[in-house]
Structure formats: structure tokens, C-alpha cells
Amino acid sequence: MSDPAAQPDLTAVLAEAYGLPGAVLERLPVGQVTVNYRARVGDRLLFVKHYRDGVTDLGAERAAVEQTRLARLRRVPVAAVRPAAGGATVVRHGSTTVSVWEWMPGAIVDSGLNPAQQRAAGAALGRIHSAFADHPAGRRPTAAVDDWLHPDLGLLEATVDKLLGIAGGRPRRGEFDEQALRTLTERREVLRGIPELLAGLPPLTTQVLHGDYSAVNLLFQGDELTAVLDFLPPESFLAAYELGRIAFDPRTVVLDEDWITSGVNLVGSYLETNPLLPAADVTACARVALIQLLTSLYGVKQHYLKPGLLQPDLDRFWLLRHAAAQRLLDHLGDVESALAQAAHRRGRRPSGGPTTNEGMPMTTTATMPMTATVAMQDASDTPADQWEVLRGPIGGAAVTAAVTALAERHRLRYEHADADTLRLTDPATSDALVTVRLRGLPPQEPRTLGFQVPPPAAVDVLIDPGPGRGASRFAAELRDTLAARALPYTDSELAGIRDAMPLLERYSSPQPAFDDWALLFRDHYLEHSTGFVLAMERAGIPAEWIFALDKGDQTWNRDRVHATFLARGYRSDILDNTAVNDPDAHQAELARVGADIDAFLDSAHAAGRRVLVVDDGGLLARGYGTVTAPHTADAALELTVSGIKRIAAAGELAIPVLNLARSQVKSRLGYREIADSCLRRVRTLLPDRKIIGRRVLLLGHGTLGSLLATQLRDLGCRVDVVDTDLPALIDAAENGFTTYRTARQALSSSTPFLVVGTTGEVALTEADLSALPDGVLLAPFATRDFSVLTEGPRRAGATEIPGIGLRFDLPGGRTATLLGNGRSMNLFQADSIPTQGYDAYRAGTLIAAATLCADPDRVPAGLHTGPADAAIAGAGLWDAYYDLYCAEQG
Question: Does the predicted model carry a pTM greater than 0.70?
Fold first, then answer.
């Protein structure tokens, strides 16, 4: 619905404070606290939140915006705020207060969530609670919890009587008046049971929450959760409150016949992403939801005392909430029994958890709340044998600091039992809560491709919960704190990466060319990528103006790269190649990441910075360099051939793009290293298989394929080649390889034990599968070659072989084993391209970037290879490379 009266003020704010002239506003029928609008500015949609009169604490509202950003770091789908020209996220302009957000796809589900939507909602809430568990605001005492646990039942009863008097005293009662009289009378009767419900609550965990996590603040596209909206400022409250509120949403309880199973389904998904919530909180969440429903008169109170913005909606919601309360009350025992079973099935985190080769957990932080619990947990929640050992480069001082900080947060007693033992005890009872023992270790294997001399010190840290109440919680918090310290690369490891790339080091001194530029980088999260981004920082791009995006492959140390980037102050996220290749199936993911990219571009431009994109086949394909793009970068480097193809399909370029994919430095040096890593990865995954002398079918004879063909032949393999590009096929034939126009022809003429894909396109079709020999091995070195298996219905029936790949059943009782996960196999659980091997290519990329940024107007819009080659040669990189790696050292 339109709102002409509000439009002049709001359009003036958008034009003057945000640089968005000509906005067309449409008021949306959502929201009780703010008036919300959809704004159309040209071809772009935005969400405008207009704060009602009386909003005076802009700091609190901006803190709520910051909560959204923190949730995004934990992969929660949220809208990105669009800062005003001055950088503020919430703006008061005259008497008008607004915030502006990227428009997110999806709709509110007001008829009850289906099972898939419940799982998505539960998983997202678990990530939010995990992300906010150590929020500093959780340390502050709050009266809200005590008020909730001790409601003023006399005042509540008096309010019910007042509302009954108003409804009953009307001379002409409407339909809602009659419904109000009935429901308020029923509510008055059950108020006397609230003390018993409260007495049945166990000690409950408090922490910072979303604040208003409910169905009206969730957007879905089909079964996919596309956005979580309206975070509140950070305040500590009961975790069980927010979990129970969404799991037993009134729509679910009233409209779903199997509502208990539905609620438990949501709770189970929550526990997958936040497994540290104690079982007592899980079991009690329905009771907490019930108490909240019984002590709230929301809806009917507004109807008679102060009507809301959308009062008919509130009327319906009151009736729904009242019916849900009655149903929960009647079946509370059954619900709590089902929740207790769900908490038990969740179990405890296995000792050790996922680890690196050092035994150090590869999880991100999921700590328990920074506040203590409302009351300490029962001792029965702490099994005596729940100890675990962490191993890594954690010094004794770091362990001591973590233990000391935990003791201060929870007001525990801390002592050194001996030189290698620390103990936390309950100051009230002297019961042992957590005992920590340290043991020095001999030198360990490196956690990077390179090694350090001397090797970094490593210790075993044994964390042993005692019999005291709440011990398991404190042990888990300490465990996650120490694990998080081990994720980012250490200073010595970063120095090792830097030392392994001497050419990149040579060209990464501070350069005026990068003044007033920001960097948007997308590539695989590998060690040489880490080296490159850090070199760009050294060369002059500030950390706060670097946004890195992973391509989504299961590279060995991707979690460590991500943690390192965040620790240095970069932004870091994932723009998965799968989403780029199939955008229709990944709309929500692309919308979330796209909103962040748009906000980064807008913020950089508002700060007077231009944006350089260094892209490995995805960002420019999304249109960030085209003439019709609403958000665009200012210059770019494209690193891959597949990216070049996507750029051609995206539309006319409006910015200069240097083609590093076809540059001399990549063609002559980079691809050799890639081909070497591919063959080494095959041999690593197949240590028991004979390769020498056997038949191999190679799909694609381009730059990578031709190098692999030669390497395989040098091993003694008999190599057949297929390529649809005739010049490439002729080249293969004249180099002595057996060639075929199609895979079907090749498979009909020979029986390869290994089929290698290098095309980057669909290389095997459904018809080709029937010709594959039984037991054949498939090695993809580009994402789409074997997509007939990985993207079609056959994927669901595949058997995973951990660490190796996927086994597929084929017609006629035959099988095929896909090595890796269908993407570039040399990156599957590996970092197989040597850091030093990519040194020249990364140095050439930095040289090209500096040349382009120094004078971007010198290169016309479009795709260019020559300027990159000229810049690299002119900087002396070829001379430096030869002198360093090729010349005889005399």
C-alpha cells in the first residue's frame, strides 16, 4: 500500500543522506515497531525501515545492525545494511530516522513452517546462538531474566480483569469482543498454575540472542531460508526462550496435527549447529515457551488499550497464541519427554572432534555464554570420563591466560596445582570443575606445505571436567577458546609462506598505485592465495578494504585461511562455483553474498575508493563489470579461462579487464605447476594402483590437457585424447596420441582404467555412461566434466568413500569411482600446487594489478591480454625468475 504522506520526508532522506534520488516508495504490511517500505531506485530494490517517533537511542539501533553483521560471519542468511554517505548504518535526518537494507528474495510463511523450513530455521538459530555465545554484552547483568522468572501475577490478573471489563462493557459487542471475553476468562483460570510451571524449570543458560526470532522475521523461497531479519540490540536472555518460541510457534502448535514431531525436528537441527546448549535448556524450551504464552496478553491488550499499526493481525495472533497455550499445557509432559530424547540423541561432542594433522580441531569457535548460568547445572550433567586432548602450537602462557579469563568470567577459583596442571573450582563448594594438564611434545609435522626451522613448539592439552556442577559447560568453553586460537596461521607459518614466494615479496613493497583502492578477491583458499592477499596488503591496500571470497572447494587448510583473513581484519566469505554455474538453484545463497558484495562496493565508493576485482571465474560473470550493472567495480583481473567464457556471456564490459588466464606467465609457468599437481594428486589418492603402462582416456587437449597428456605418456601410459575443438585434436594427433572426436568413440575402441576430464564443460553424457568399463576411475580437473554424475539424480545414490571420492552404480551392475567430489581433484582435501611453484604467477598478477590501478583510464573497457604481458615483462619478472630458478649459480 502507498503512503503519500510519508514519502516527501523519506525520499528527501534517501536522496540527501544516501545518494539515492528519485526513490519510489511502497509501504509494506509488515512490522509493528517500524514502518517499512520497498524502495525502487532505478532498477534496484531496497528495504527502508522508518523508525517511529520516540526512537532516541541510535546507538542501540546501530548495535542491532552490528548483530546482523556478526550473524553473517557465521553463514546466517541476512540482509546487508546499506550505509549512508557518511558511513552511518542508522541515520537521523531532521525528524526522520531510517536505515536502508538490500532487498532479499523470499516471503514470510504465515501458515506454519513445513519440515524442511523448520530444519532451516533451527539450523540458522543454532548458528546465531553459537556466534553470540561469547558476546561481551552477555557479561552484563540483566534484570529482564529475573523479571521473567518472577512475573507479577497480581498485576497480570488485574490487567485481565480490566480487559474483561472493557470488552464486556461495550454496548454493542463485535465478534472479537465475544472471542476476547471467552479467551480472557480461560486465561484467568490458568494463571494460578504458573507458579508450578516456574518451579519445574531447571537452571537455564543466558546469553545474547537474536532478540525476536520468530516466523515473521524469516524469509523463505520454497524450502530455503533466504534471510533472517530484525535483530535486536545485544542483551542477555534465556537461550531456551528463543529456541522454544520458534520450535513451538503458535502456527505450528495449532495448525500442524503432528506439532510435537515438528517442534522436535526444529530443535534437532538447532543442536546440529549449536551442540553445546545443555540438555536441561533443550528439554525446558517448550515449558519456557508455554510460560511466555500464558504471561503475555500481546494482541488483546493492544486491541483495548493501544491499538497497533496492524491491529487486525494482532487480534488474530492473540487467538492463535491462546489456542497454542492451551494445547501446549495439555500435552507438556509428552513434549518434554520428546525433547529430552532429542537432547540425548544429540549426545556429546566426540572426544577430539574433527582435527588437522596436528590433532587440533578444525572447527570455528562455538563457545558457551560469557555469563554464568542463572543457577549452576546439576552434577548429573557431567560424566566423569568426558575428557579430551587438544594438540597444537599452544604455549603454556596462552593456556594459562585462557583459564584465567574463564575463571574471571564465571567467578570461579583458579589455581596452579603444579607446574603443568591448572584447576578451576567452585568457590562456594570447592568442588573441582575443570582440570587442565599440559605436556610438551617432540617436534611435530608442519601444518602448512612448508616447514619451519626450528619446528614450532607443540603441547598436548588435556581438559578434564570434574564432578562439580556445570563442569562440562566450562570445559567445553575452554576447549573451544583454545581451539579457536589454533586456527589462524601463526606468525612463523605466515613468514614461511612469505619466504616461499620471493618474487612476490620483491614486488609487494608499498606502491602509490594502490592509494585509494579496495580489493575484491575471489580464488581458492590456498597458501599461495594467502601469500598474494597479504602481499596486496603490504603493497598498500588497507586490511579493512580487502574482501576475499573462497570458491568453495574442499582445500586442505581453507578454514585456516578464512580464520587468518578474519584475524587480519579482512572480510571473508564463500561464493561457491556451484552457485555460479547453476544460479537458479542457488538464488538465496547468491542473494546473500551478492548483497555483501554490493555493500562493499557501495561503501568503498562512498569512501572515495575505487575497487579492483581479482577474479577466478565468478564475480565478473555475475555482472560486476558490465555496462548495465547497478553495482560495478572499477577495474579487474580475470585469472581463469572459464571466467573469460563467462564474461563473454555476461554482457558488454564497462571496465578494463586484464586477461591473466591467457597471459604468458600463466601459460608458460602456471599451467605446468597445475598439471604437475593434478598428476601428483592422482597418484596420492591411488597409492595401491599401477599407473605405468596402462590405458588412460583424456577428455580435452587444451593448455592443461596437453601438458597432462605428455606427463602421462612420459610415465609410460597409453593415452587416448578426445576434444571437440579440431585444431586441438589435430595437435594431439600430430604429437603421436590416439585421438577421437567423441568420448563414445573412444570408449567403444579401448578400455581405459582412468578417464581424466580437463574441459571445464560437460565431457561425459548420460549415453556415454553405458560404455564406461566396470570399475573405471574418473579424475576431474575441472568442475563440470563429470556433472552427469555429480549434478544429476545419480548423485543421491552415490556411496561416499571418505578421503577418496564417490562410487556410482552404472547400468548392467557396473560401477565407476569418481575421485574427489566432482570438482577440481587436485584441490580435493589438498593444497597441491606448491606455494613456490605459483610464486611467479602471483607476482605477475600483483604487477599487472599495480599497473592497471596506477592509470585505469589508460586501458579501454573490455578484455585485454597485451597490457598484462607488457607490464610483467617491463617490471623485469622474467629476468628475476630466470636468475632465481634457472641460471647456474656461480
Answer: no
